[in-house]
């Protein structure tokens, strides 16, 4: 088992982090003040509302926790501050490259347009890049429970926004009731624009088919993908196609993807050669940091060593939605820094 100080030294990549689920306490308070919303709550009460309890029963109960912060994220200023806040926390977590995702349609209650919501987030990420040693990009999420009419407004965002920080598309939300098949037309519109795709899939019990369908619809990464453990014949395809699984241990236990460590497939998939990665999913809702997720993995699998953590970061770099030159620079930097930690 690695010491927390060793884990803290490791540079990290995070591919799966939701903006709205990851706001710090101080940021939540600032956003409320700006929005002229009187929360009238102690710090403990704020966190209680923003975090999912351990006895959360399923994904839908987990997602209900987002209702608390969304009213605070309805202006350009607040979205910019929120994006800055999450990238700042990531830099403190020794993350050098992060992709932060959000669903623009949830931020339009005060007359922002979809494009303005994206511009605000991208502006906050750019400002964080100036102040911290981090590269921070944005992903646009569609919500599965949304109407197709609303969802079809998302692909054109990629025509209208010409900013290098906007790097990909995701589908999040209710996987229990909205399987992947429903979205083939939408994803064709995303593919037509050559936009990178990662999709939440295989997060819920009995949802494994969504993983196969997601890859067939153009996803090169899968959000969680826990149920791939039930697809022994398909694991070879995940390996040969170098599909990246964005796993998030704390979140996966809270949503009851799994309930026993023996059933968590991270190490088994890693040993087979599947490109697994570690992520927070939601720093606040899951009350975590990437440091804590690494510590958890190190405790569960004491043999998972520095070189294994380095390997999953190289997998994450390979799967990142950036160009080959940026990837090479990150690979080089990580190899160099991990070597120093091992020495
Ligand atoms: O683990 C997850 N699975 C599915 N959807 C999620 C998860 N975490 C967050 N969101 C959803 O994504 C939206 C945009 O960030 C959040 O508002 C939440 O509804
Ligand atoms: Zn997620």
Care to describe what's here?
By secondary structure, the chain is of the alpha/beta class. It has one domain (4-342): Metal-dependent hydrolases (TIM Barrel). It is built from 16 helices and 8 strands. It has helices at 4-9, 25-34, 43-50, 59-63, 76-92, 114-131, 148-151, 157-160, 184-191, 209-216, 235-240, 249-254, 266-272, 290-300, 306-319, 324-342; strands at 12-18, 95-102, 135-143, 166-172, 196-201, 221-224, 244-247, 275-278. The protein has an 8-stranded parallel sheet, with helices on both faces. Strand 2 (95-102), helix 6 and strand 3 (135-143) form a beta-alpha-beta unit. Helix 2 runs antiparallel to helix 5 (76-92) and helix 15 packs antiparallel against helix 16 (324-342). The longest helix is centred in the last third of the chain and has 19 residues, at 324-342. The two termini are 17 Å apart. Bound molecules: inosine and zinc ion. The site of zinc ion has 6 residues, from strand 1. Keywords: Hydrolase, Metal-binding, Nucleotide metabolism, Zinc. Its cofactor is Zn(2+).
């Amino acid at each position: 088992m690695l010491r927390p100080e060793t884990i803290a030294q490791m540079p990290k990549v995070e591919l799966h982090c939701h903006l709205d689920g990851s706001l710090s306490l101080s940021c939540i308070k600032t956003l409320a003040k700006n929005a002229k919303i009187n929360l009238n709550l102690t710090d403990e009460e704020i966190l209680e509302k923003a975090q999912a309890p351990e006895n959360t029963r399923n994904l839908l109960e987990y997602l209900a926790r987002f209702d608390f912060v969304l009213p605070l994220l309805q202006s350009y200023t607040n979205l910019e501050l929120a994006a800055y806040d999450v990238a700042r926390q990531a830099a403190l977590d020794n993350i050098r490259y992060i992709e932060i995702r959000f669903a623009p349609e949830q931020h339009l209650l005060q007359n922002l347009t979809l494009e303005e919501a994206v511009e605000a987030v991208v502006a906050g990420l750019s400002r964080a890049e100036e102040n911290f040693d981090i590269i921070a990009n944005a992903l646009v999420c569609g919500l599965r429970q949304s109407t197709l009419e609303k969802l079809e407004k998302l692909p054109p965002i990629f025509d209208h926004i010409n900013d290098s920080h906007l790097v990909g598309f995701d589908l999040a939300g209710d996987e229990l009731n909205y399987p992947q098949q429903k979205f083939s037309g939408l994803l064709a519109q995303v593919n037509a624009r050559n936009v990178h795709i990662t999709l939440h899939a295989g997060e819920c019990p009995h949802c494994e088919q969504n993983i196969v369908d997601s890859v067939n619809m153009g996803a090169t990464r899968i959000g969680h993908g826990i149920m791939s453990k039930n697809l022994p014949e398909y694991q070879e395809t995940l390996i040969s196609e170098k599909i990246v699984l964005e796993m998030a241990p704390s979140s996966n236990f809270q949503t009851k993807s799994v309930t026993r460590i023996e059933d968590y497939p991270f190490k088994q998939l890693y040993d087979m050669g599947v490109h697994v990665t570690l992520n927070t999913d939601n720093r606040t809702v899951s009350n975590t940091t990437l440091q804590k997720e690494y510590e958890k993995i190190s405790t569960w699998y004491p043999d998972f060593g520095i070189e294994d953590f380095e390997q999953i970061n190289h997998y994450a770099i390979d799967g990142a939605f950036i160009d080959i030159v940026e990837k090479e620079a990150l690979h080089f930097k990580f190899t160099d820094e991990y070597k120093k930690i091992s020495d």
